[in-house]
Amino acid sequence: MQLPVNTFKRAMRQGEVLIGCWVGFASTNVAEAMAVSGFDWLVLDGEHAPNDPRSVIDQLRALAPYPVQPIVRPVEASVALVKQYLDIGAQTLLIPMVDTPEQAALMVSATRYAPDGIRGMGAALARASRWSQIPDYIHTANDEICLLVQAETPLAMQNLQAIAETDGVDGVFFGPADLSASMGYRGQSDHPAVRKAMLDGIATVRAAGKAPGILMTDRTLAQFYLDAGAQFVAVGLDTSLLMGAATALVRHFKPDQGGAALPSSTY
Fold this sequence. Notes:
The chain is of the alpha/beta class. The chain has 12 helices and 8 strands.
């Protein structure tokens, strides 16, 4: 048995543009349905969605038969959580709230077996090695790990060049919702100051030879950032797609229906 190839990592290194979507329902059925939609990658979110390693492993299994790359986002930049998610078979991780190159370097170390890092040796218990049925797993696993870190604060933007230049960081993802809030523009992801920060950030990451990414559900703005050089862009969230379609359908037949407004087109 061979170690699965991380096609997402290879595609990014070849300069391909990759379109993705957030998966937050913590459901194997939803994950599999999204897998057949044609996205290049899907984020299994453990930061704001009700996921943990037990629910993520089931979704990884649901995605496995399809040509889509799962990306797992832990709730925080934790060495222990990185170990767990790698052991259940995640090969690409998106680490939230990385503010310094030291934090980035620690996350790199957490994803690598010694002597290259500090990942614990427990492959015999791990789905990642198919319970030791991939005989050279501990010798080849490091090469297939893709590490993405999120820049979401002014401190992260201040340290962005050093974060992007950290050896072992494959890409930097900009979270416009948290970044705009931390800059004093909560709920204004397209504020001119926020837009400038992200455009400058994309240029900085590309200059470091790494891949910049962003979540932007407004189609025009998503294309704007793609044209600006963003390489992996999430263009939707499963929760918003469902609620937007459901709400629009109800209002078509019940135009006088009150209630919440349609979900925002930006995140």
